[in-house]
Amino acid sequence: MLVGKELLEKSKLLSKKSEEDIARECGYIGPSGRVLRKSFYRAYIEAKYGKLSKKIGTKKSGNRSLRGRQAEFKTKVHGNGNILIGNSYTKRLGLIPGQEFQILIKKESKIIHLIPIK
């Protein structure tokens, strides 16, 4: 993975390419072949503006660093009309794959209740 001046120079040479291609050609590829965009962006910003005083995107809880997305308790209606309830919510409620629910809709207040079917 390129860093510092080398990263900036190579990025400039590849400026006509997509960000993903630039990151790939600068060596920001994980073991699975996935482009490591976050690592690339951090390295690029650090190369251009210097060392960051605080790591971006990490939160500390005691001695542990929290990673990944945090449950926000909000969602949106997708273009196909579906509403996705994420894995973190189903885990918190102890729901299991295949479990069935009755959907109760309160149209006036736009509230949806999921009632487990026993």
Question: Could you give a short description of this structure?
Answer:
By secondary structure, the protein is of the alpha+beta class. It is 31% helix and 15% strand. α1 packs across α3 (37-49).
Uncertain runs: none
Overall structural domain count: 2
Major sheet: arrangement of strands: 1-2
Residue fraction in strands: 15-25%
- Largest beta-sheet details: 2 strands, antiparallel
- Gyration radius, in Å: 22 Å
**Which structural class do you get from the secondary structure elements?**
alpha+beta
Termini Cα gap: 54 Å
Number of strands: 4
Number of helical elements: 4
Q: What does the average pLDDT come to?
A: 82
Shape: elongated
Which range best describes the helical content: under 10%, 10-25%, 25-40%, 40-55%, 55-70% or over 70%? 25-40%
- N-to-C series of helices and strands: HHHEEHEE
List keywords for this structure.
two-stranded antiparallel ribbon, two-stranded antiparallel sheet, 118 residues
What is the topological layout?
Elements: H1 4-13, H2 19-25, H3 37-49, E1 59-61, E2 64-66, H4 87-92, E3 101-106, E4 111-116
Antiparallel strand pairs: 1-2, 3-4
Structure, explained:
The structure is a single chain. The chain has about 120 residues and is an alpha+beta fold. The protein folds into two domains: about 5-55, no CATH class; about 85-115, no CATH class. The protein is about 30% helix and about 15% strand. The protein is built from four helices and four strands; from the N terminus they run H-H-H-E-E-H-E-E. It has helices at about 5-15, 20-25, 35-50, 85-90, and strands at about 60, 65, 100-105, 110-115. The strands form two sheets. A two-stranded antiparallel sheet has the order 1-2. Strands 3-4 form a two-stranded antiparallel ribbon. Strand 3 (about 100-105) and strand 4 (about 110-115) form a beta hairpin. Helix 1 packs across helix 3 (about 35-50). The model has no long low-confidence stretch (mean pLDDT about 80).
